[in-house]
Amino acid sequence: MIIDQRALGFGSGERAIYATDPWTTRGRLFPEASSLTRSDFQRDRDRIVHTTAFRRLKHKTQVFISPDGDHYRTRLTHTVEVAQIARALARALKLDEDLAEGVALVHDFGHTPFGHTGEDALDAMLKPYGGFDHNAQSLRIVTKLERRYAEYDGINLTWETLEGLVKHNGPLIGENANGGHGPVALPILEYCQLQDLEIGTFASLEAQVAAIADDIAYNTHDIDDGLRAKYLTFDMLEEVPFLSGLMAEVRAKYPKLDDDRFAHEIMRRQITRMVEDVIGVAQHNLAKLKPTCAADIRAADYTVAAFSPEMAETDKQIKKLLFAHIYRHADIMRIRAGATQIVTDLFHRYMESPAEMQSHYWVDSIPGMSEAAKARHVGDYLAGMTDSYALKAHQRLFDHTPDLR
How far is CA 105 from the centre of its chain? Predict the structure, then answer.
């Protein structure tokens, strides 16, 4: 994909006409006076960074359980890498960098301990009560579960940041809905009764670059972590023509490079090529769409920030590689089974004995709750746990805790 370098926003500080303007934000659910020194999107980003949920990400699994080693990605390091890529894309496309960064920083708040394994287990437990979805849980955290401010629950983010959190992967309803994910999660529908997030349209371009940055980041760092863990080899990477080409390029330039440096040179090229591909596609789509404001991005019937068909095929091939050699590896599956047991055991114990949820701020009100409300409360408690906290809780309550090493 050809990039128009003259149109790039590097260092210019200029915001494009289709960018989201922080000075005309749709505001917050609870109105607040503007800051003298920061835009509303800057304030959103800063509030996100100062939450308890953000700090907990450092002890939540990305792919490899944290005891496996200090250098594997966690949800926190993954989030920081996503934010870096989102900022780079936003600057190149002359978007609001603060909004793109804020959406990137908040996008994984709702993840449970033990990665997608914990999410699947909690979804199964909550299925009779509306199920569990990590995007919906992220929304619950920033609108209800964080309790820091005197005048409201949550952190009172702007409409645009909440929209990006909920819709960064595309519309949730209508003909352009991101298929395969079932009905809209109940917490999202409930919140939209208070503040309509227009879930039938696309999100801002800032949210779209945060979403594609997520794909770029985990495609790259899961390969890096897989090589470090010895689940992947360089020979396995040859299965993907794109990666094979990058390796040939690095070998030609650095024929005697050690494995660690060789891996890094591949990863940095992978990120660069994917970022450049997205910029070129976005420029092409913008030229075709000719948006005159941010609303035109939302009203489009396609994602503006996307991979080219060739890079989309590469993306599929990389995911296939990762599933075959990492996500479905026998060792990982054994650990996943143990993590599932931990989350399931804790859910049942807390439903039977809510008082076991130590130091939880709603515990006194549980006796008056309906079964559905109690289950959602237990789900909130479990979803907020770090890996280490969940392990300790299980060890305290049960005679045997699965070994996750």
Answer: 8
Boundary-marking domain end, from 265, 290, 317: 317
Q: Are residues 283 and 307 in the same domain?
A: yes
Whether residue 337 sits in one domain with residue 238? no
Contact predicate 302/288, CB 8 Å: no
H or E element, residue 391: helix 387-397
pLDDT at 169: 92
Place of tokens 């070998």: 251
Listed in sequence order, the residues at least 6 apart from 305 whose beta carbon sits closer than 8 Å to its beta carbon are: 89, 93, 205, 208, 209, 211, 212, 278, 281, 282, 285
Whichever domain contains 174, its CATH number is 1.10.3210.10
Beta-carbon contacts of residue 235 (< 8 Å; ≥ 6 apart):
none
Crossing angle of helices 205-228 and 159-167, in 10° steps, is 50
Q: What is the pLDDT of residues 170-194, one digit of tens each?
A: 999 988 886 545 789 999 999 999 9
Helix residue spans in 69-156 (DSSP H): 75-92, 97-106, 115-126, 134-140
**pLDDT per position as a tens digit, 331-367:** 888 988 999 999 999 999 999 998 898 766 556 667 7
Taking only the tens place, the pLDDT of each residue in 122-145 is: 999 999 999 999 999 999 999 999
Sequence-ordered list of residues with C-beta below 8 angstroms from that of 309, at least 6 positions apart, any chain: none
Distance CA 147, CA 159 (A): 19
Query: Do 346 and 394 touch, CB atoms closer than 8 A?
Result: yes
